[in-house]
């Protein structure tokens, strides 16, 4: 089987046995998607699987040896898993970095408002979305609230089939003459993304009745929203797409398709020459800021702690580790969409169903904001994939002047690591429901596992 082949899809290249592995992987991946609906829930599920596989907190160790499995839980919203290799950590790590946050709507600090006897939640969108896509969908409310008494309340409304859902209205076409002539990004504004949450009341005002419902069901006062993290996501769970069931539709596949592959790879990879590290980061969609994003100190702190367990507390050892480390930035890229062909340069666009995609650079207009991987590292990654028969392809994010985007790659490149973006080419990226090919999702797992096990 040719690993690099732009003429034949992965399904065409795979044996019947490999095709069955694709389907089994797709089933497990969908279970992850339907469980890991927010970054907090993804953190929880990743740690559950890691603990079941023998991973222990790094703080449990006073020394490390080959095969030890350790984890770091960053405030319940990011995770690091590592398997100690034969070489000491200061000789460099094999890192696959993915993110578990995704575009969504967040509730504002004082979200409950009443307009003409209808009660709404006020929201602020998180990450890059097309706002018009979020109307007229069944929506779930997920997250946590901390009450004045310090109690943590976990909220889940809309995910159970018996639950009510939330809903954002749009204007009927009969009255939409003025709306129809607006640009797409102006027809629905951010402040219009207000889900309806209630209508019934025994008095002239509805808001007090809805607040009373929240107090009765969850013990939440209006002031408690100020110490809450509540997210609105599509209530629709994952579904198979296509008469041949070849694709998966779900919310949050950017970047949970790569995160699940990252998790599956480190859980199943053989302990190897170098220490293997799987990063599951928060806040990538808003620039990797905050104390759970990759621009924070926790990932460097984790590596410093590994070195400290070997008696190396001087900063120079951390710098050497970073310079010798190799990273796959595991994030999605845009697959060629025949319906919007003019946005792509076909010869360099990732193809749907053709394997994991290597993206040498991201950025925009002149590669601005990109790490731009060097040829020396690319030939090494190519060789790993070819030797392990991992179907792969080349991709970039649209035409040169069309737009662009970024990942965590430039951050780790700034530390001195060798980095290249390596992820799944998907359709309808950042839409409420995104689309990936099952074969591509499986190829991500094969790619990350082969990378972890390489020298």
TrEMBL record:
Signal peptide: none annotated. The keyword Zinc applies. Its cofactor is Zn(2+). Pfam families: Peptidase_M18. The keyword Protease applies. Its EC number is 3.4.11.-. One of its GO terms (molecular function) is metallopeptidase activity. It is an enzyme of class 3 (hydrolase). Keywords: Aminopeptidase, Hydrolase, Metal-binding, Metalloprotease, Protease, Zinc. InterPro entries: Peptidase_M18, Peptidase_M18_dom2. It comes from the Bacteria. Belongs to the peptidase M18 family. This is M18 family aminopeptidase. It comes from Megasphaera lornae. The lineage of its organism: Bacteria, Bacillati, Bacillota, Negativicutes, Veillonellales.
């Amino acid at each position: 089987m040719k690993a690099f082949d732009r003429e034949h899809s992965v399904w065409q290249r795979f044996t019947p046995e490999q095709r069955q592995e694709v389907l089994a992987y797709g089933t497990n991946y969908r279970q992850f998607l339907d469980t890991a609906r927010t970054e907090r829930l993804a953190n929880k599920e990743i740690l559950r699987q890691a603990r079941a596989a023998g991973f222990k907190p790094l703080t449990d160790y006073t020394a490390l040896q080959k095969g030890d499995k350790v984890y770091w839980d960053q405030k319940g919203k990011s995770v690091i898993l590592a398997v100690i290799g034969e070489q000491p950590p200061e000789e460099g790590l094999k890192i696959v970095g993915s993110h578990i946050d995704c575009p969504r709507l967040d509730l504002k600090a004082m979200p409950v408002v009443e307009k003409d006897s209808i009660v709404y939640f006020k929201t602020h969108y998180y990450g890059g979305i097309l706002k018009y896509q979020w109307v007229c969908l069944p929506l779930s409310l997920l997250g946590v609230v901390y009450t004045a008494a310090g109690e943590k309340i976990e909220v889940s409304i809309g995910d159970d089939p018996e639950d009510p859902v939330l809903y954002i209205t749009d204007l009927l076409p009969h009255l939409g003459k003025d709306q129809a002539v607006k640009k797409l990004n102006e027809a629905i504004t951010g402040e219009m993304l207000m889900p309806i949450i209630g209508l019934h009341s025994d008095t002239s005002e509805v808001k007090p009745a809805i607040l009373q419902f929240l107090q009765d069901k969850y013990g939440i006062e209006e002031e408690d929203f100020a110490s809450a993290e509540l997210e609105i996501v599509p209530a629709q769970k994952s579904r198979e797409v296509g008469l041949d069931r070849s694709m998966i539709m779900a919310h949050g596949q950017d970047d949970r398709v790569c995160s699940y592959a990252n998790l599956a790879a480190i859980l199943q990879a053989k302990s190897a020459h170098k220490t293997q590290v799987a990063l599951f980061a928060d806040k990538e969609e808003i620039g990797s800021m905050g104390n759970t994003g990759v621009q924070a100190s926790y990932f460097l702190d984790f590596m410093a702690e590994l070195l400290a367990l070997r008696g190396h507390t001087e900063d120079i050892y951390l710098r050497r580790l970073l310079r010798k480390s190799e990273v796959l930035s595991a994030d999605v890229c845009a697959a060629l969409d025949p319906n919007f062909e003019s946005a792509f340069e076909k010869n360099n666009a990732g193809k749907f169903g053709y394997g994991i995609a290597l993206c040498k650079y991201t950025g925009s207009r002149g590669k601005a904001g990109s790490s731009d991987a060097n040829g020396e590292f690319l030939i090494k990654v190519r060789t790993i994939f070819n030797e392990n028969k991992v179907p792969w392809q080349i991709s970039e994010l649209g035409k040169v002047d069309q737009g662009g985007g970024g990942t965590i790659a430039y951050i780790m490149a700034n530390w001195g690591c060798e980095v290249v973006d390596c992820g799944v080419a998907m359709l309808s990226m950042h839409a409420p429901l995104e689309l990936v090919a099952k074969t591509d999702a499986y190829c991500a797992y094969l790619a990350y596992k082969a990378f972890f096990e390489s020298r």
